[in-house]
Amino acid sequence: MKHLILRNLNAASQFADADTDHVLDVLDAVVSPVVRLYGVGFLQPSIERGPQLNFYKTVPADFRAELEAEESRRGPSLLVRYAAYDPLPFTFAELIQRRKPSGKDRWFFDLHRDYGVCDPFYCPHWPWLVVFKADRLQELTHESRAVLDVAARMAVHRLKEIAGHAALDASAEQLTPREKTALQYLSDGISISDIADRLALSEPTVKTFVRRATKKLNASSQLHAVALAVRNRLI
Q: What is the overall mean pLDDT for the chain?
């Protein structure tokens, strides 16, 4: 583990000079004593359109094709929806235990196991998701998980630099301060009437702010607008 920590420290300068493709090579080299890089996903600006997952070169082409076809047909998986909330690093087994997927939500997990990918390790760093794989991930120590997460964070930092820090969707950037405030209050469970009272505005005015924000975010409902605003770090 000490060797992996030193590799992380030494990798900082390598990441600083890496282009997009080389970032993945550096990351795989850093973590290879413990795990192998599986892929890096980009979840921004909205998981409703599915993630942009860049598989690492060691992932079989037929698996890539089947997964992409299934996501195109079924939409984003349970795992992608969970990762969008930027939780602490987690494994397949941990997610299954927490969410207990069934029915149509099982396809993502079943497909991976068909290809022998039993328990990937996910490190979410919004809006990116870094995925590692190993034969015995369940034996990763707390220290190992933390160090892998640091390596993932360094790679994501460089990818953000390359992408110009991954700007939010243009429509989301157009939210006004009042629209963001209204959504923030709604996310806290505060009613429209109470929001109006706090802001010293009329209820119709607050409803207008919420309606405009919902339209700008291309949300299907007020609740959906709040969820998108939280997910995209707008509030």
A: 83
